[in-house]
């Protein structure tokens, strides 16, 4: 059986196919029958193999089908935490299964496998921590420069291109601000929550999530997403 995992996926990505191809090449070279292929997409390597939606059931007492060998292209496809990887190693040994890491050229049936896997897992864990630290430092530098790093932002704000053309920054969303001003004025005049909700519905004001989708479409020069029930952008009357 061949297993693939990707932390992030996007249209047109071939990473999953590449992992399956490498596993198939190993299986054909050593005459190992392929029971099937499974993959966990958009799944972090920090999540235990036993807790993954696709791989997890195959590691239980009643797997979807009988299997003997699990082929994985690299050690970090099954985990990035040393303890999680060693737990999977122990489970394989106790249940008569074999896990082969194609790129590293090792398998759980090897006598020195536990030591090798422990060392490699520790290295993978250290590398993950270094990557996370570099990302954290980069975000901190960009925030100091006023750049937007893709984080969530509140209603009334929007990402815009910086004047120097380098990245994006958060600015005021004039359309959302006008909606907030209208709501504030109505609330001060004594309007109840139900009145405000009715006003938003009647004017078909985009929700915060819908407004965020509009921002993305505007930034990437894409067609405005169909937000209203009639399949058109909701006519809020302010844009």
Fold and architecture overview:
With 239 residues, the protein is an alpha/beta fold. The chain is 41% helix and 13% strand. It contains 6 helices and 7 strands. The chain has helices at residues 15-30, 82-94, 113-144, 174-188, 193-202, 208-219, and strands at residues 2-6, 37-41, 69-72, 98-101, 106-107, 157-161, 168-172. A 5-stranded mixed β-sheet has the order 2-1-3-4-5, sandwiched between helices. It has a two-stranded antiparallel ribbon with strand order 6-7. Strand 6 (157-161) and strand 7 form a beta hairpin. Helix 2 (82-94) packs antiparallel against helix 3 (113-144). It is elongated. The chain starts with a strand and ends in a 20-residue tail after the last helix. The relative contact order is 0.07. Mean pLDDT is 83; it is low at 230-239.
């Amino acid at each position: 059986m061949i297993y693939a995992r990707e932390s992030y996926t996007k249209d047109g990505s071939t990473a999953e196919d590449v992992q399956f191809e490498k596993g198939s090449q190993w299986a054909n070279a050593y005459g190992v029958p392929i029971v099937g292929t499974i993959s966990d997409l958009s799944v972090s390597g920090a999540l235990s193999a036993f807790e993954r939606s696709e791989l997890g059931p195959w590691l239980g007492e009643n797997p979807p089908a009988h299997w003997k060998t699990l082929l994985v292209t690299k050690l970090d496809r099954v985990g990035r935490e040393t303890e999680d990887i060693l737990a999977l190693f122990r489970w394989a040994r106790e249940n008569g299964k074999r896990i082969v890491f194609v790129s590293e050229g090792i398998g759980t049936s090897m006598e020195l496998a536990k030591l090798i896997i422990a060392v490699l897992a520790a290295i993978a864990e250290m590398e993950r921590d270094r990557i996370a630290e570099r990302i954290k430092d980069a975000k901190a530098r960009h925030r100091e420069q006023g750049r937007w790093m893709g984080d969530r932002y509140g209603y009334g704000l929007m990402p815009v291109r910086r004047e120097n053309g380098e990245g994006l920054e958060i600015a005021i969303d004039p359309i959302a601000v006008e909606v907030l001003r209208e709501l504030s004025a109505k609330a001060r005049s004594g309007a109840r929550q139900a009145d405000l909700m009715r006003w938003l519905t009647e004017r078909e004001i985009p929700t915060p999530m819908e407004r965020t989708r509009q921002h993305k479409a505007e930034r990437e020069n894409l067609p405005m997403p169909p937000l209203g029930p009639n399949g058109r952008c909701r006519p809020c009357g302010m844009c």
